[in-house]
Design a protein that fits this description.
Layout: H1 6-12, H2 38-45, H3 60-73, E1 77-81, H4 84-93, E2 101-105, H5 110-122, E3 126-130, H6 136-142, E4 147-153, H7 165-174, E5 179-182, H8 187-190, E6 200-204, E7 218-222, H9 236-239, H10 250-272
Bound molecules: pyridoxal-5'-phosphate.
The site of pyridoxal-5'-phosphate has 16 residues, from helix 4 and helix 5.
Length: about 290
């Protein structure tokens, strides 16, 4: 992890300009990127080279911002999404399929609750909601053989209850599944869930990270710590060949530190397209009333 202080990462993290390059992260407001030959393009398409060709998949501005958030959270890889809803949907759907089960704190944002209890249920993913104040035993009792993850919010919106991330992480790990934490309300300035054992962190950047109420967005950061290989039979999407990329096995090619985010980008962003467009957001000028 970087030795820089959080304040420094906020303004410099994830982007290191070279001699003569812009001091600030440039806004690459472009749908597409140029390539010289079809072969170059083919390599990008097949995940054999890293680079940019289409903003739905990757964009330098988004990658710099994601890298900054990843540093703030102390993770190994990150990505931006079009909203917090998209981030939480991706974080779960990247490792759970039809027929799987997830344990979630009942003290979560209403939109997330609806996404889980209604919409993802229609996709065949079942959720058990537990109290954010559950004991170890109560959490143990919620597990099923097909449980793939545990989910909660650092500080719940709107209940403002504070989750015992360490307890939830320990129990999740005891049962061989990752803990996904929505850190929207705390932000990495106040709490870094990875330091307490969380494996995946999500954000609605719409709230405090944006800060001026002008841009909807989301993010996912991976700690790189969850051992997908150890539980390979539970997470075949990460540990067996992906036919749509000529049989790439994400954990083998991108390691534990990169597999989750690479799969999420290569499959879910490619197919669902909840991507965010880098653009300058103009803030409304504050009108001052002059009275004489
Ligand atoms: C707002 C919010 C979301 C949803 O994010 P959007 O950017 O509105 O899609 C998810 N989780 C929490 C904790 C939120 O406050």
């Amino acid at each position: 992890m970087s030795k820089k202080r959080l304040e420094t990462i906020c303004v410099q993290g994830g982007y290191t300009p070279k001699n003569g390059e812009p001091r600030q992260i440039p806004i690459y407001q472009s749908t597409t990127f140029k390539y010289d030959t079809s072969e170059d393009m083919g390599k990008l398409f097949d995940l054999e080279a890293s680079g940019y060709f289409y903003t739905r998949l990757q964009n330098p501005t988004n990658d710099y911002v994601a890298a900054r958030l990843t540093q703030l959270e102390g993770g190994t890889a990150g990505m931006l999404t079009s909203s917090g809803q998209a981030a939480n949907f991706y974080a779960i759907f990247n490792i759970a399929n039809c027929g799987d089960h997830i344990i979630a704190s009942s003290a979560i944002y209403g939109g997330t609750f609806n996404l889980f209890a209604v919409t993802m249920k229609k996709m065949g993913i079942e959720f058990t909601f537990v109290s954010p104040d559950s004991t170890e035993e109560e959490l143990d009792n919620a597990f099923k053989p097909n449980t793939k993850a545990v989910f909660g919010e650092t500080i719940a919106n709107p209940a403002c209850s504070v989750l015992d991330i360490e307890l939830f992480a320990n129990v999740a790990h005891k049962h061989g599944v990752p803990l996904i934490i929505d850190n929207t309300f705390a932000t990495p300035i106040n709490c870094r869930p990875i330091e307490w054992g969380a494996d995946i962190v999500t954000h609605s950047t719409t709230k405090y990270i944006d800060g001026h109420g002008s841009g909807v967005g989301g993010a996912i950061v991976d700690s790189g710590k969850f051992d997908w290989k150890k539980y390979a039979d539970k997470y075949p999407g990460l540990t067996t060949p992906d036919d749509s990329y000529h049989g790439v096995v994400y954990v083998d090619k991108f390691g534990l530190e990169g597999a989750f985010i690479t799969k999420c980008t290569a499959q879910l962003m490619r197919d669902f397209g909840y991507s965010i467009t880098p653009k300058r957001i103009l803030r409304k000028p504050r009108l001052r009333k002059f009275t004489r």
